[in-house]
Amino acid sequence: MSSGPTPRDAAEAAQAWADEWARAWPAADVEALCALYAPDARFHSQSLRDHESPRSYVKRVFAEQSRAECRFGTPIVSGDRAAIDWWGVIEDRDGGLETVAGTSLLRFGADGRVLEQRDAWGSAPGRVDAPHWAPRA
To answer: How far apart are CA 62 and CA 89, in angstroms?
Structure first.
């Protein structure tokens, strides 16, 4: 027997993750996002960086933003893992804009919380329109 979620549970957990990030990122809601992760979750915001806790990551990046807009694609799920595309435009404290887009690779525990997250992403100065897969909010 597997200790991970069933495919249906993983699909539900992945969609809940995307929905909560879509709501909490613009609101800079650290606590809501931290609730999505197991206490010992490993988080890599880029493959070549060391891991950090989800709390440390979101506190750091939210402190740099004054406003954010984001969208998430439909999760692709296999077993206890999911891949979710995302796009966002971040306004910093000085009014500068940066567009970021990437994919989060997630592994879920039996309780539906994220055990591991690895992100691959890129950025561009200014606003770049959302890709075709990013539905309007």
So the answer is: 13
